[in-house]
Amino acid sequence: MGALSNQLLTVAILAYLVAMVCHAAEYAFGSRAPAARVAARPRRALATVGAGAQGAGTPPEPEPAPAAADSRRPLPVGRIAVAVTVLAAVAHFAAVVTRGIAARRMTWGNMYEFVLTLTLVGVIAWLIVLARRPSIRRLGLFVTLAMVLLLGVAGMVLYTPVGPLMPALKSVWFIIHVSSAAIASGIFLLGFVTGVIYLLRAGYDRGKRRFPYPLVRWAPEAEALERLTFRLHAFAFPIWTFAIASGAVWAEAAWGRYWGWDPKETWSFISWVVYAGYLHARATPSVKRRTATWIAIIGFVTMMVNLIGVNLFFEGLHSYSGL
Predict the structure, then answer these.
(1) Which pLDDT score is estimated for 322?
(2) Is residue 265 situated within a structural domain?
(3) Labelling 4: which of 101, 107, 154, 170 has CA 20 to 30 A away?
(4) Within this chain, do residues 216 and 265 fall inside the same structural domain, yes or no?
(5) How far is residue 173 CA from its own chain's centroid?
(6) Could you give the angle at which helices 76-103 and 140-156 cross, rounded to 10 degrees?
(7) 117 vs 70, 71, 145, 184, CA distance in Å?
């Protein structure tokens, strides 16, 4: 089962890569809507009873041109990209399940397994959002890129052979605490992607044309991206709060204290404070949306420091990287 899990993960990465290429094809080569012809198309004159010849020589008012963000028609390859992403998510899910069967435990016992789980949560969250809002399909390019990068790093750098759970982790709180942390992290990951694209799109709308701003020329509108970023973080933040609280309860049961400023505890709290600051800034009218979004980006950076930096470079009670 362990070997099957590895093979399924390889299939998932390749499928995400194919989906990314398909999204890129739609993103780059989507046929431009005939905006010039639409703009010049005269409105059909409406005949009214008693209308005379007044205004007969006046040309009809042209219809307004569509917005730049909508000036490309979607290609069928975009729908193929979504279908391949679904298949990749199925293979991804199967890789997580088969590894759990091989290990006879939940698959959150080390960094490799945690990254597999949080990326799975992230792609499932993306597919749910996409089902509700098909108009944001162009974001799939950046979501699948994130999946390929993170799973590639997990497979090549963080991989740990299947093994039993460490004795310190054999507790019901392991399931409660780590699962909530993985769910929150996966949604924060998706919020990070939408936040970065929002900042780039907002810069492009303000006239910035240097790299990398032109990459998001055909991304969804900045306002829609910002709203989506906020909603994702607003949904994930209570889950992250619960993860920290359940970890404190587990710490009291395992180590006899609720909080000890262990490096993992400290950085988890730092992430919580930064994300709380983002939500507060987002709710404050005097704070620009771009400024608030930058705080959310910093929040995800602290999450990565907590996940990778603390596990690899700090000694503490949470040294469960498996490397």
Answers:
(1) 52
(2) yes
(3) 170
(4) yes
(5) 27
(6) 30
(7) 35, 37, 17, 11
Structural domain harbouring 254 = 170-323
Domain total in the chain: 2
Residue ranges of the chain with per-residue pLDDT less than 70: 30-75, 314, 316-323
Do 149 and 182 lie in one domain? The reply is no
Nearest CA among 253, 91, 93, 227 for reference residue 170: 253
Q: DSSP 3-state helix, strand, coil percentages of the chain (rounded to 5)?
A: 70, 0, 25
CB-based burial label for 23 (10 Å; 0-12, 13-18, 19+): buried
Instruction: Quote the CA–CA distance of 132 and 134 in Å, as a whole number.
Output: 6
Residue 115 neighbours by CB distance under 10 Å: 21
Crossing angle for the helix pair 172-205 and 222-255, nearest 10 degrees? Answer: 160
Position 290 scores a pLDDT of: 96
Question: Between the CA of residue 313 and those of 60, 145, 305, what are the distances in Å?
Answer: 70, 27, 10
Q: Are residues 176 and 161 in the same domain?
A: no
Q: Quote the DSSP letter at residue 263.
A: H
CA 86 to each of CA 97, 124, 158: distance values in angstroms, whole numbers, following the listed order = 16, 9, 25
